[in-house]
Amino acid sequence: DVKVTQSSRYLVKRTGEKVFLECVQDMDHENMFWYRQDPGLGLRLIYFSYDVKMKEKGDIPEGYSVSREKKERFSLILESASTNQTSMYLCASSLFGAGGEGTEAFFGQGTRLTVV
Amino acid sequence: AQTVTQSQPEMSVQEAETVTLSCTYDTSESDYYLFWYKQPPSRQMILVIRQEAYKQQNATENRFSVNFQKAAKSFSLKISDSQLGDAAMYFCAYRAIQGAQKLVFGQGTRLTINP
Questions:
Q1: Of A14, B32, B45, B63, which has the fewest beta carbons less than 10 angstroms from its beta carbon?
Q2: How close are the terminal C-alpha atoms of chain B, in Å?
Q3: A109 touches chain B (CB under 8 A)
């Protein structure tokens, strides 16, 4: 059974803290993504990676960074958490360059982050 | 840049009835993929259905079907014989074939099933 696992379902952090959100996939996928989900805004792409040590900015990268040292793991880092980063964070993975059924992205169960 | 728009924030339907969720998108590409994803209260995103833009035939998966109108850039989801388990957020998404393989999502439609 394919799996994308996010390290926490719920997280509460203080303003100014450095926050790490971890995501691991066991499908040998090249592509990995971090999305932020907010009501009325859908899912917005923060960063994505199509290979180890490669990363590209998405639509809302400000205040975030990422790390991909191993193929299966993609970490999202909030350098200095702020209250406007309170949100649901979703990790996803997919095959690189695939068509048809290979285009499916698989998602983790999300981390609901609250910054106080 | 590609954009996806879902203009219905909420929809409701009686159990066993049919409901259609709307989605429009904007792209200059001629070939791409479109998806509908479901997010139940468990928060686990699940692929419902996929459409390749080069295929004229509308995709169908059991009770779920799409109406893909390429010229109008419209991609609606029809759910037949609605069941209580269909209650969820539904997201329309676009993916280019060339270049970055990211998904671009719409705002989502919350579907309620009335027993």
A1: A14
A2: 41
A3: yes
Chain B residues within an 8 Å CB radius of A104: 35, 47, 50
Question: B85: exposed, middle or buried (C-beta count within 10 Å: 0-12, 13-18, 19+)?
Answer: exposed
Q: Are B45 and A92 a contacting pair at CB < 8 A? A: yes
Helices and strands counted in chain B (H then E): 0, 12
The first and second tokens of residue A100, run together, are: 């048809």
Residues paired with residue B48 on neighbouring β-strands, in sequence order:
none
* Average pLDDT over every residue of A11-29: 96
Could you report the per-residue pLDDT of A72-116, keeping only the tens digit for each? 999 999 999 999 999 999 999 998 876 777 778 999 999 999 999
Q: How far from the centroid of its chain's Cα atoms is residue A96's Cα?
A: 17
Is B6 within 8 Å of A42 when comparing Cβ atoms? yes
Determine contact: B8 vs chain A, CB below 8 A.
no
- Whether B16 and chain A come into contact, CB under 8 Å, resolves to no
Q: What angle do CA B77, A110, A62 make, to 5 degrees?
A: 100
Number of H helices, E strands in chain A: 0, 11
